[in-house]
Amino acid sequence: MAEMIGAESHLAAHAPLRDLARGRNKLIGAAVAVSPLADEERYREILAREFNLVTPENAMKFGPIHPGPEEYDFSGADAIVSFAKTHGMMVRGHTLVWHNQLPDWITNGTYSRDQLAAILREHIHTVVGRYRGNVRFWDVVNEGLTDDGRLRETVWSRVIGPEYLALAFQWAHEADPSALLFYNDYNGEGLNVKSDGIYQMVRSLRDDGVPIHGVGLQMHVGLRNHPRPCDVLANQERLTALGLETQITEMDVQIQKAPGSIAERLKEQARIYHDTLALCLAAPRCTAFVTWGFTDRHSWIPHFTHHRDQPLLFDDAYQPKPAYEALRAAFLEE
Ligand code: XIL
């Protein structure tokens, strides 16, 4: 008996995240970039071992996947979807409607309302249709609101009008009725004017019968800039009360510009990861916890902030960090 208990805890001590997540009925995911997936054996190994969900970091965005009016490039997205299939992982499609990483032909186009609506409809039908049955979740609209909770002015809202939101969800639903459709945003994880705006918007979409199934909380945070876990939980609870799922969709934790030694900061970072996963575990309809990459070697943060950083679970050399151990610990807690 003592031997058996010993053997079990030995197993738990080495079980990868995806096994622990399965035991808690959650998905654990990471954003995936096309070139390291093609070029680095270690990247592929850890991704397949630790995660059961992938989000293409850039490959499904409008610019990369639909570079010309009559031109689609599915190569990157296909590679990620096929890797996921081979390794028994689900896919979060990201993202159909956004104001960034648009191709020039959209940004510089001079389309009428009906023309742009037809373009967006065709885009959504083509991309969602291609991956029907293989992409379980879609970020249909990304970052559609401003930090003060109002509709963001983008080419979509300006030319099509605010109804682009409902239309995008309807078109995605037509293309894959079994996919779960998400609104995804940043800075609206806790309780504030932006999360209030998101709540009002998704509530009115639900009231109108629009097929929306979840809200993604990006969770790009830093040591000195992160929402209170109790506020994130309360926000998830009010979204759940509307009949929606929630997911943590893009978590990373910057350590730059904070006091303390690197070791101290990595420990604090680990605590933030732990607490965020713990609150997803506590929220019955929080179905996935996704980090924006998994190795510091390929994080977007240094490019975005123009500062060195170490925001993810594995270091540059693919060694697990305290943050990785903290996620394991959270999964193993009751
Ligand atoms: C980022 C990618 O990580 C970068 O490689 C790219 O240059 C810019 O976009 N919110 C989102 C993601 O929804 O799509 C963004 O991804 C990060 C912020």
Short structural description:
The protein is an alpha/beta fold and 334 residues long. The protein is built from 15 helices and 9 strands. The relative contact order is 0.12.
Properties at a glance:
eight-stranded parallel β-barrel, about 45% helix, binds (3S,4R)-3-hydroxy-2-oxopiperidin-4-yl beta-D-xylopyranoside, about 325 residues, globular, alpha/beta, 9 strands
The mean pLDDT is 96
Low-confidence runs (pLDDT<50, min 5 residues)? 1-8
Helical fraction:
40-55%
Bound molecules: (3S,4R)-3-hydroxy-2-oxopiperidin-4-yl beta-D-xylopyranoside
Question: What series of H and E elements makes up the topology?
Answer: HHEHHEHHEHHEHHEHEEHEHEHH
Helix/strand/pairing category: alpha/beta
Major β-sheet profile: 8 strands, parallel, barrel
Number of strands: 9
* Structural shape: globular
Instruction: Estimate what percentage of residues fall within beta strands.
Output: 15-25%
Number of helices: 15
Strand order of the largest sheet: 1-2-3-4-5-6-8-9
Ends: how far apart? 23 Å
Give me the Rg, rounded. 20 Å
Can you describe this structure?
With 334 residues, this protein is α/β, with parallel strands linked by helices. It is 46% helix and 16% strand. The chain has an 8-stranded parallel beta barrel with strand order 1-2-3-4-5-6-8-9, surrounded by 6 helices. The site of (3S,4R)-3-hydroxy-2-oxopiperidin-4-yl beta-D-xylopyranoside has 6 residues, from loops.
